[in-house]
Amino acid sequence: MKETTIRIGGMSCGGCVRNVREALGRIPGVRVGTVTVGSATVSYDPATTDREDILAAIERAGYEPRAA
Q1: Which residues, listed in sequence order, are joined to residue 35 by a DSSP beta bridge?
Q2: Is 43 helix (H, G, I), strand (E, B) or coil?
Q3: Mean pLDDT of all residues in 35-50
Q4: Beta strand segments in 1-68, E
Q5: Does residue 58 come out as left (phi exceeding 0), alpha (psi in the -120 to 50 range) or beta?
Q6: Strands 2-9 vs 39-44: parallel, antiparallel or unpaired
Q7: Taking a C-beta distance cutoff of 8 angstroms, is the pair 3, 39 a contact?
């Protein structure tokens, strides 16, 4: 498992945290760690998914992943 922390723009409340947590939780091979307003830490299996899939899920949820 690899771990990464991603800064996320556009989050402002607990609902945003929930939306991001749920979006990340739907990705196969991802274990969601800490999600707070402005960032998320996840562990993922590189054989199943990659960081780009994680970033895309955040974008589909309506938020802006930023370079760490």
Answers
A1: 40
A2: strand
A3: 96
A4: 2-9, 30-36, 39-44, 64-66
A5: alpha
A6: antiparallel
A7: no
pLDDT at 56: 97
pTM: 0.92
Radius of gyration of the chain (CA): 11
Neighbours of 47 (CB within 10 A): 7
The CA-CA-CA angle for residues 67, 20, 60, to 5°, reads: 75
Would you state the structure tokens that stand for residue 17, as one six-digit string?
A: 């945290």
Question: What gap in Å lies between CA 7 and CA 21, rounded to an integer?
Answer: 13
Q: How many CB atoms lie within 10 A of CB 57?
A: 21
Answer whether residue 1 shows pLDDT above 80. yes
